[in-house]
Specification:
The chain contains 4 helices and no strands. The protein has a domain of about 25 residues. The longest helix is centred in the C-terminal third of the chain and has 22 residues. It is about 45% helix and about 0% strand. The radius of gyration is 25 Å and the shape is elongated. It is mainly α.
Length: about 100
């Protein structure tokens, strides 16, 4: 059996029905103490201390044309598959280091 996937953009969502509006109003009126959070336990102080910000962040990629020295490209390719990702990682490391230096001033 095939299932139909329906996707909406935030600006093209269908309007709420009256029943949906009433349901949301009733939920908003309930006190927080009635919310069952047993399936989502609160994080401990230790978990917050070791948490990583942006762990699942994936920046948007843009295709460019860049000229690099032949020996640099050969070196990158000699390290195996994924030389473009390595170029990006090197540039990101330099960008973050420059941002850290700029914020320290």
């Amino acid at each position: 059996m095939k299932t139909k996937i329906v996707r909406f953009e935030l600006n093209s969502m269908p309007p709420l029905t009256e029943a949906q509006r009433q349901n949301l109003k009733a939920l908003a009126a309930r006190p927080d103490t009635e919310i069952d959070t047993t399936d989502a336990p609160e994080m401990t102080e230790e978990q917050w201390r070791t948490a990583e910000r942006g762990h699942f962040y994936r920046p948007v990629k843009r295709q460019i044309t860049a000229r690099v020295d032949a020996d640099v490209l050969d070196w990158l390719k000699a390290q195996g598959k994924g030389y473009q990702s390595r170029i990006n990682a090197i540039l990101r490391r330099e960008m973050l280091e420059a941002a850290k230096s700029a914020s320290a001033k």
